[in-house]
């Protein structure tokens, strides 16, 4: 069964509410906002595939520490899947031997801790039997959403995005998508801020849901943790035939 386990599902850190990390298989994670505080040593060592949706700090927060962890515990390596542009942003601003060592050449260039695998919009790739279709979404930096497929099941995952016709169109074009993970970062009263930062409010999410041509289960995520109660109240006021469920950490999301 295709599923996603949110290790962290918030748009920031606060108390036990953690930044974005989605475990797809024991070896595959989308974003690294909270993997170090969510998994034990053996679970961390099992991770071999890291998919990065974009370069914002809350989505790559644990990537430098994870690289150090993997190297220091015996020269373990992992592959990072992202676009060429996002890869360059991460290398130029994080793994630049100033902010953090360049783990693409440690312990050596022939045997690096981090191996980058460039991916492209609308060109699917497969990890352990799961197909990932990268989708360009509408954020302030280059950003990826995905449709994940396995055995006739599919989950659409928005990543960070504002209003995005491209994401909606991909969902409408794939009738196997019955579960959608859709970011909803700010309450309705902060719509101006959401629009400027290319995130969504519940009222904007409702507008996106109205464009979907079939009923789906909607799992909202990336809520700002200090505004969670207000955002959920706004979500509960949405009039839609679709079931809308705020994500909970460690509660699996299935494709059915």
Describe the structure.
The structure is a single chain. The protein has 256 residues and is α/β, with parallel strands linked by helices. The protein has a single domain (3-254), classed as Ribonuclease Z/Hydroxyacylglutathione hydrolase-like (Metallo-beta-lactamase, Chain A), CATH 3.60.15.10. Helices cover 26% and strands 26% of the residues. The chain is globular.
Would you spell out the secondary-structure blueprint of this structure?
Layout: E1 3-8, E2 21-25, E3 28-30, H1 35-38, H2 41-46, E4 49-51, H3 57-60, H4 63-72, E5 78-82, H5 84-93, E6 114-118, E7 125-127, E8 130-136, E9 144-150, E10 153-157, H6 165-172, E11 177-183, H7 191-197, H8 202-209, E12 217-221, H9 228-236, E13 243-246, E14 253-254
Structure at a glance:
The chain has helices at 35-38, 41-46, 57-60, 63-72, 84-93, 165-172, 191-197, 202-209, 228-236, and strands at residues 3-8, 21-25, 28-30, 49-51, 78-82, 114-118, 125-127, 130-136, 144-150, 153-157, 177-183, 217-221, 243-246, 253-254.
Question: What is the highest CATH level, the class?
Answer: Alpha Beta
Individual helix count? 9
CATH fold-level topology: Metallo-beta-lactamase, Chain A
Whole-number tally of structural domains? 1
């Amino acid at each position: 069964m295709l599923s996603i386990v949110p290790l962290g599902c918030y748009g920031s850190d606060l108390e036990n509410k953690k930044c974005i990390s989605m475990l797809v298989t024991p070896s595959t994670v989308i974003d690294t906002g909270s993997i170090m505080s969510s998994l034990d040593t053996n679970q961390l060592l099992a991770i071999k595939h890291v998919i990065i949706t974009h370069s914002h700090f809350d989505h790559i927060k644990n990537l430098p520490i994870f690289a150090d962890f993997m190297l220091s515990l015996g020269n373990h390596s992992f592959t990072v899947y992202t676009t060429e542009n996002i890869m360059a942003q991460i290398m130029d601003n994080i793994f630049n031997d100033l902010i953090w060592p360049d783990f693409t050449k440690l312990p050596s260039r022939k045997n690096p801790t981090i191996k980058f695998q460039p991916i492209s919009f609308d060109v699917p790739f497969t990890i352990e039997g799961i197909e990932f279709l990268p989708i360009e979404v509408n954020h302030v930096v280059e950003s990826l959403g995905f449709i994940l497929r396995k055995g006739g099941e599919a989950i659409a995952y928005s990543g960070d995005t504002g209003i995005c016709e491209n994401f909606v169109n991909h969902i409408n074009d794939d009738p196997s998508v019955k579960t959608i993970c859709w970011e909803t970062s700010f309450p309705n009263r902060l719509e101006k801020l959401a629009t400027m930062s290319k995130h969504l409010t519940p009222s904007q999410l409702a507008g996106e849901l109205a464009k979907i041509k079939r009923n789906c289960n909607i799992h909202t995520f990336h809520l700002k943790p200090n505004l969670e109660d207000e955002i959920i109240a706004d979500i509960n006021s949405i009039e839609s035939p679709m079931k809308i469920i705020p994500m909970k950490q460690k509660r699996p999301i299935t494709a059915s």
